[in-house]
Amino acid sequence: MYKPLADEIRPDSLEDVVGQQHILGENGMLRRIIESGKIPNMIFYGPSGTGKTTVARIIAERTNRTLRKLNATTAGLSDIKDIIAELDTFLTPGGVLLYLDEIQYFNKKQQQSLLEFIEDGRITLIASTTENPYFCVFNAILSRSTVFEFKSISPREMEPAVIRAIRIVSEKSGTEIETEEGVISHIATSCGGDVRKALNTVEILSNSCVGKDGKVRFTLEDVKAISQRSSMHYDRDGDEHFDTVSALMKSLRGSDPDAALHYLARLLETGDLIGCCRRILCSASEDIGLAYPQAVPIVKACVDTALQLGLPEGRLALAEAVILLATSPKSNSVVHAIDAAVGDVKRGKAGPIPRELQNVHADGTGFEREQGYKYPHSYPNHWVKQQYLPDSLKGTRYYEYGDNKNEQAARAYWEKIKGEEH
Question: How far apart are CA 164 and CA 21, in angstroms?
Answer without folding.
Answer: 19
